[in-house]
Amino acid sequence: MEKLIVTCAITGGASPKGNPYLPKTPKEQAQSALEAWRAGASVIHIHARNPETGNVAHDSRFFGDAILPIREQSDVIINVSTGGIGRRVDSEWLYKKIPHTSCAERVGVIPELCRNPRTKPDLASFNAGSPVIDIYNRKSNDFVLKFVLIHSFPDMVEMARIMNEYGVKPELECYDVGMINSCLFLKEIGALKDPLYFQCVLGILGSIPATVDNLVHMVRQIPNEYPWSACAVGLLEWPMVTTAIIMGGHARVGMEDNIYLAPGISAKSNAELVEKIVRIAKELGREIATPDEARGILHLPKRELSK
Protein backbone atom coordinates (compact mmCIF):
# COMPACT_ATOMS: atom_id res chain seq x y z
CA MET A 1 0.00 0.00 0.00
CA GLU A 2 1.39 3.43 -0.95
CA LYS A 3 2.27 5.98 1.67
CA LEU A 4 -0.48 8.16 3.13
CA ILE A 5 -0.96 11.74 1.99
CA VAL A 6 -2.25 13.84 4.89
CA THR A 7 -4.01 17.04 3.87
CA CYS A 8 -4.69 19.71 6.48
CA ALA A 9 -7.53 22.14 5.69
CA ILE A 10 -6.49 24.83 8.12
CA THR A 11 -9.33 27.32 8.11
CA GLY A 12 -12.20 26.93 5.63
CA GLY A 13 -15.25 29.15 5.58
CA ALA A 14 -16.21 28.70 9.23
CA SER A 15 -17.14 31.75 11.28
CA PRO A 16 -14.10 33.13 13.11
CA LYS A 17 -16.34 33.72 16.14
CA GLY A 18 -17.02 30.01 16.49
CA ASN A 19 -13.48 28.85 17.25
CA PRO A 20 -10.86 30.94 19.07
CA TYR A 21 -8.09 28.68 17.77
CA LEU A 22 -9.00 29.08 14.08
CA PRO A 23 -6.24 30.88 12.11
CA LYS A 24 -7.88 34.02 10.76
CA THR A 25 -5.17 36.27 9.30
CA PRO A 26 -2.61 35.34 6.62
CA LYS A 27 0.12 35.43 9.29
CA GLU A 28 -1.82 33.06 11.53
CA GLN A 29 -2.58 30.82 8.56
CA ALA A 30 1.09 30.57 7.64
CA GLN A 31 2.05 29.71 11.21
CA SER A 32 -0.70 27.08 11.46
CA ALA A 33 0.25 25.60 8.09
CA LEU A 34 3.90 25.25 9.07
CA GLU A 35 2.94 23.60 12.36
CA ALA A 36 0.71 21.13 10.48
CA TRP A 37 3.54 20.42 8.00
CA ARG A 38 5.95 19.69 10.84
CA ALA A 39 3.32 17.36 12.35
CA GLY A 40 3.13 15.32 9.14
CA ALA A 41 0.84 17.08 6.64
CA SER A 42 2.15 17.10 3.09
CA VAL A 43 -0.73 19.19 1.66
CA ILE A 44 -2.12 22.43 3.09
CA HIS A 45 -5.57 23.57 1.94
CA ILE A 46 -6.11 27.33 2.31
CA HIS A 47 -9.09 29.70 2.17
CA ALA A 48 -8.09 33.36 1.95
CA ARG A 49 -9.21 35.55 4.86
CA ASN A 50 -9.29 39.30 5.24
CA PRO A 51 -6.76 40.12 8.01
CA GLU A 52 -8.91 43.01 9.28
CA THR A 53 -12.18 41.10 9.63
CA GLY A 54 -11.05 37.47 9.70
CA ASN A 55 -13.79 36.66 7.18
CA VAL A 56 -13.32 34.55 4.04
CA ALA A 57 -12.45 36.69 1.01
CA HIS A 58 -11.48 35.49 -2.46
CA ASP A 59 -8.58 37.89 -2.89
CA SER A 60 -5.22 36.86 -4.30
CA ARG A 61 -3.45 39.33 -1.99
CA PHE A 62 -4.62 37.50 1.11
CA PHE A 63 -3.79 34.12 -0.43
CA GLY A 64 -0.34 35.37 -1.36
CA ASP A 65 0.35 36.83 2.08
CA ALA A 66 -0.28 33.37 3.59
CA ILE A 67 1.49 31.35 0.89
CA LEU A 68 4.78 33.29 0.73
CA PRO A 69 6.02 32.51 4.28
CA ILE A 70 4.90 28.90 3.87
CA ARG A 71 6.93 28.58 0.68
CA GLU A 72 9.96 30.23 2.30
CA GLN A 73 10.08 27.70 5.14
CA SER A 74 8.72 24.43 3.77
CA ASP A 75 8.27 22.20 0.74
CA VAL A 76 4.62 21.50 1.57
CA ILE A 77 2.07 21.24 -1.27
CA ILE A 78 -0.25 24.26 -1.47
CA ASN A 79 -3.91 23.71 -2.30
CA VAL A 80 -6.02 26.87 -2.65
CA SER A 81 -9.79 27.06 -2.44
CA THR A 82 -12.02 28.12 -5.31
CA GLY A 83 -15.06 27.53 -3.11
CA GLY A 84 -16.14 28.71 0.30
CA ILE A 85 -18.41 31.55 -0.83
CA GLY A 86 -21.32 30.98 -3.14
CA ARG A 87 -24.82 32.09 -3.98
CA ARG A 88 -26.99 32.59 -0.93
CA VAL A 89 -30.35 30.86 -1.12
CA ASP A 90 -32.07 32.22 1.98
CA SER A 91 -34.90 34.77 1.85
CA GLU A 92 -32.47 37.58 2.68
CA TRP A 93 -30.62 36.99 -0.57
CA LEU A 94 -33.80 36.42 -2.59
CA TYR A 95 -35.52 39.63 -1.57
CA LYS A 96 -32.62 42.01 -0.83
CA LYS A 97 -30.43 40.82 -3.71
CA ILE A 98 -27.27 40.49 -1.62
CA PRO A 99 -24.22 40.12 -3.94
CA HIS A 100 -22.64 36.70 -4.20
CA THR A 101 -19.23 35.51 -5.31
CA SER A 102 -19.44 33.98 -8.77
CA CYS A 103 -17.58 30.92 -10.00
CA ALA A 104 -15.49 33.16 -12.30
CA GLU A 105 -14.46 35.37 -9.38
CA ARG A 106 -13.51 32.37 -7.25
CA VAL A 107 -11.38 30.65 -9.89
CA GLY A 108 -9.96 34.03 -10.96
CA VAL A 109 -7.46 33.96 -8.10
CA ILE A 110 -5.48 31.23 -9.88
CA PRO A 111 -4.11 33.35 -12.77
CA GLU A 112 -3.32 36.13 -10.28
CA LEU A 113 -1.43 33.81 -7.92
CA CYS A 114 0.45 32.20 -10.80
CA ARG A 115 1.99 35.53 -11.85
CA ASN A 116 4.49 34.98 -9.04
CA PRO A 117 6.19 31.54 -9.03
CA ARG A 118 6.45 31.73 -5.23
CA THR A 119 2.66 32.02 -4.78
CA LYS A 120 1.62 29.62 -7.55
CA PRO A 121 -0.48 26.84 -5.98
CA ASP A 122 0.10 23.18 -6.76
CA LEU A 123 -3.55 22.18 -6.36
CA ALA A 124 -6.90 23.96 -6.33
CA SER A 125 -10.26 22.72 -5.14
CA PHE A 126 -12.66 21.92 -7.97
CA ASN A 127 -16.24 21.58 -6.78
CA ALA A 128 -17.70 18.98 -9.11
CA GLY A 129 -21.25 20.30 -9.16
CA SER A 130 -23.45 22.61 -7.09
CA PRO A 131 -23.36 21.42 -3.48
CA VAL A 132 -25.60 22.88 -0.81
CA ILE A 133 -23.32 24.13 1.97
CA ASP A 134 -25.26 24.36 5.19
CA ILE A 135 -25.16 23.72 8.91
CA TYR A 136 -28.25 23.37 11.08
CA ASN A 137 -28.07 24.71 14.64
CA ARG A 138 -30.42 22.58 16.73
CA LYS A 139 -30.23 24.96 19.69
CA SER A 140 -31.42 27.99 17.72
CA ASN A 141 -33.55 25.94 15.30
CA ASP A 142 -31.95 27.74 12.37
CA PHE A 143 -29.68 27.16 9.39
CA VAL A 144 -26.26 28.72 9.80
CA LEU A 145 -24.65 29.07 6.36
CA LYS A 146 -27.47 29.09 3.76
CA PHE A 147 -25.72 29.02 0.40
CA VAL A 148 -25.15 26.94 -2.69
CA LEU A 149 -21.99 26.82 -4.80
CA ILE A 150 -23.34 27.21 -8.33
CA HIS A 151 -21.38 25.22 -10.93
CA SER A 152 -22.97 24.40 -14.27
CA PHE A 153 -21.13 22.10 -16.67
CA PRO A 154 -19.91 25.12 -18.70
CA ASP A 155 -18.66 26.64 -15.40
CA MET A 156 -16.71 23.47 -14.64
CA VAL A 157 -15.27 23.30 -18.16
CA GLU A 158 -14.03 26.88 -17.77
CA MET A 159 -12.61 26.18 -14.30
CA ALA A 160 -10.76 23.17 -15.69
CA ARG A 161 -9.47 25.22 -18.63
CA ILE A 162 -7.97 27.84 -16.33
CA MET A 163 -6.38 25.27 -14.03
CA ASN A 164 -4.94 23.36 -17.00
CA GLU A 165 -3.60 26.56 -18.59
CA TYR A 166 -1.74 27.58 -15.44
CA GLY A 167 -0.51 24.11 -14.45
CA VAL A 168 -2.59 23.84 -11.27
CA LYS A 169 -4.01 20.39 -10.65
CA PRO A 170 -7.72 20.21 -9.78
CA GLU A 171 -8.60 18.42 -6.55
CA LEU A 172 -12.03 17.07 -7.47
CA GLU A 173 -14.33 17.80 -4.53
CA CYS A 174 -17.17 15.28 -4.72
CA TYR A 175 -20.01 15.70 -2.24
CA ASP A 176 -22.02 12.83 -3.69
CA VAL A 177 -21.73 9.93 -6.10
CA GLY A 178 -23.15 11.86 -9.06
CA MET A 179 -20.27 14.32 -8.86
CA ILE A 180 -17.77 11.52 -9.44
CA ASN A 181 -19.67 10.64 -12.60
CA SER A 182 -19.57 14.32 -13.63
CA CYS A 183 -15.78 14.33 -13.30
CA LEU A 184 -15.45 11.21 -15.40
CA PHE A 185 -17.65 12.84 -18.05
CA LEU A 186 -15.49 15.99 -17.98
CA LYS A 187 -12.44 13.79 -18.53
CA GLU A 188 -14.20 12.02 -21.40
CA ILE A 189 -14.80 15.32 -23.23
CA GLY A 190 -11.22 16.46 -22.58
CA ALA A 191 -11.89 19.16 -19.99
CA LEU A 192 -10.16 17.33 -17.12
CA LYS A 193 -6.77 15.77 -17.77
CA ASP A 194 -5.36 12.48 -16.50
CA PRO A 195 -4.50 11.54 -13.87
CA LEU A 196 -7.49 12.69 -11.84
CA TYR A 197 -7.41 13.23 -8.08
CA PHE A 198 -10.63 12.86 -6.06
CA GLN A 199 -11.59 14.20 -2.64
CA CYS A 200 -14.67 12.45 -1.19
CA VAL A 201 -16.51 14.94 1.03
CA LEU A 202 -19.00 13.35 3.42
CA GLY A 203 -21.39 14.59 6.09
CA ILE A 204 -22.35 18.00 4.63
CA LEU A 205 -26.05 18.70 5.17
CA GLY A 206 -27.73 18.20 1.79
CA SER A 207 -25.02 15.84 0.50
CA ILE A 208 -24.01 12.22 1.08
CA PRO A 209 -24.04 11.17 4.76
CA ALA A 210 -20.78 10.16 6.44
CA THR A 211 -21.05 6.39 6.71
CA VAL A 212 -18.63 3.60 5.88
CA ASP A 213 -21.08 2.15 3.35
CA ASN A 214 -21.36 5.48 1.56
CA LEU A 215 -17.59 5.99 1.43
CA VAL A 216 -17.12 2.48 0.03
CA HIS A 217 -19.86 3.16 -2.54
CA MET A 218 -18.21 6.42 -3.62
CA VAL A 219 -14.78 4.83 -3.97
CA ARG A 220 -16.20 2.01 -6.09
CA GLN A 221 -17.14 4.63 -8.69
CA ILE A 222 -13.55 5.91 -8.92
CA PRO A 223 -11.37 4.00 -11.43
CA ASN A 224 -8.61 2.10 -9.62
CA GLU A 225 -5.78 4.06 -11.20
CA TYR A 226 -6.79 7.36 -9.61
CA PRO A 227 -5.70 8.48 -6.13
CA TRP A 228 -8.44 9.62 -3.77
CA SER A 229 -8.81 11.10 -0.32
CA ALA A 230 -11.66 11.46 2.15
CA CYS A 231 -12.84 14.06 4.62
CA ALA A 232 -15.94 14.50 6.76
CA VAL A 233 -17.57 17.05 9.01
CA GLY A 234 -17.29 17.08 12.79
CA LEU A 235 -16.42 14.00 14.82
CA LEU A 236 -17.48 11.81 11.89
CA GLU A 237 -14.14 12.84 10.40
CA TRP A 238 -12.27 10.26 12.44
CA PRO A 239 -14.13 7.09 11.37
CA MET A 240 -14.24 8.27 7.75
CA VAL A 241 -10.53 9.09 7.41
CA THR A 242 -9.59 5.95 9.33
CA THR A 243 -11.68 3.91 6.87
CA ALA A 244 -9.95 5.71 4.00
CA ILE A 245 -6.55 4.78 5.43
CA ILE A 246 -7.55 1.11 5.66
CA MET A 247 -8.94 1.18 2.09
CA GLY A 248 -5.74 2.60 0.65
CA GLY A 249 -6.98 6.16 0.17
CA HIS A 250 -5.65 9.35 1.68
CA ALA A 251 -6.87 11.52 4.53
CA ARG A 252 -7.83 15.14 5.10
CA VAL A 253 -8.20 16.68 8.54
CA GLY A 254 -8.18 20.25 9.81
CA MET A 255 -10.30 22.95 11.40
CA GLU A 256 -12.20 23.59 8.18
CA ASP A 257 -13.95 20.27 8.73
CA ASN A 258 -13.70 19.43 12.42
CA ILE A 259 -12.44 21.09 15.59
CA TYR A 260 -12.67 18.09 17.94
CA LEU A 261 -10.03 15.55 18.89
CA ALA A 262 -12.70 13.53 20.71
CA PRO A 263 -16.21 14.21 22.06
CA GLY A 264 -16.00 17.36 24.18
CA ILE A 265 -12.26 17.82 23.55
CA SER A 266 -11.45 20.72 21.21
CA ALA A 267 -8.22 20.84 19.25
CA LYS A 268 -6.15 23.91 20.05
CA SER A 269 -4.32 23.76 16.73
CA ASN A 270 -4.45 22.15 13.32
CA ALA A 271 -1.20 20.38 14.22
CA GLU A 272 -3.03 18.44 16.95
CA LEU A 273 -5.50 17.11 14.37
CA VAL A 274 -2.64 16.11 12.06
CA GLU A 275 -0.79 14.44 14.91
CA LYS A 276 -3.83 12.31 15.70
CA ILE A 277 -4.33 11.04 12.16
CA VAL A 278 -0.60 10.38 11.78
CA ARG A 279 -0.71 8.31 14.97
CA ILE A 280 -3.77 6.37 13.74
CA ALA A 281 -2.11 5.72 10.36
CA LYS A 282 1.09 4.44 11.90
CA GLU A 283 -0.83 2.12 14.20
CA LEU A 284 -2.60 0.75 11.11
CA GLY A 285 0.68 0.23 9.28
CA ARG A 286 0.50 3.15 6.81
CA GLU A 287 3.65 5.21 6.48
CA ILE A 288 3.25 8.97 6.02
CA ALA A 289 4.21 10.52 2.69
CA THR A 290 6.59 13.45 2.65
CA PRO A 291 5.64 16.36 0.37
CA ASP A 292 8.05 15.06 -2.29
CA GLU A 293 6.52 11.57 -2.06
CA ALA A 294 3.03 13.07 -2.21
CA ARG A 295 4.03 14.97 -5.35
CA GLY A 296 4.98 11.65 -6.91
CA ILE A 297 1.67 10.04 -5.98
CA LEU A 298 -0.30 13.01 -7.33
CA HIS A 299 1.92 13.47 -10.42
CA LEU A 300 2.97 16.97 -9.41
CA PRO A 301 6.36 18.50 -10.27
CA LYS A 302 8.87 18.65 -7.45
CA ARG A 303 9.43 22.02 -5.83
CA GLU A 304 12.67 23.20 -4.31
CA LEU A 305 12.72 25.03 -0.97
CA SER A 306 12.64 28.79 -1.51
CA LYS A 307 15.95 30.47 -0.76
Task: Give a quick rundown of the structure.
The protein has 307 residues and is α/β, with parallel strands linked by helices.
Please describe what this structure looks like.
The protein is α/β, with parallel strands linked by helices and 307 residues long. The chain has a single domain, classed as Aldolase class I (TIM Barrel, Alpha-Beta Barrel). 36% of the residues lie in helices and 17% in strands. The protein has 11 helices and 15 strands. It has helices spanning 26-39, 60-73, 91-96, 103-107, 109-114, 153-165, 177-188, 212-220, 237-247, 270-283, 291-298; strands spanning 6-9, 43-46, 77-80, 87-88, 123-127, 132-133, 136-137, 142-143, 147-148, 169-174, 198-202, 228-232, 250-253, 260-262, 265-266. The strands form 4 sheets. Strands 1-2-3-5-10-11-12-13 form an 8-stranded parallel barrel, surrounded by 8 helices. A 3-stranded antiparallel sheet has the order 4-9-6. A two-stranded antiparallel ribbon has the order 7-8. Residues 87-91 and 93-99 have low confidence and may be disordered.
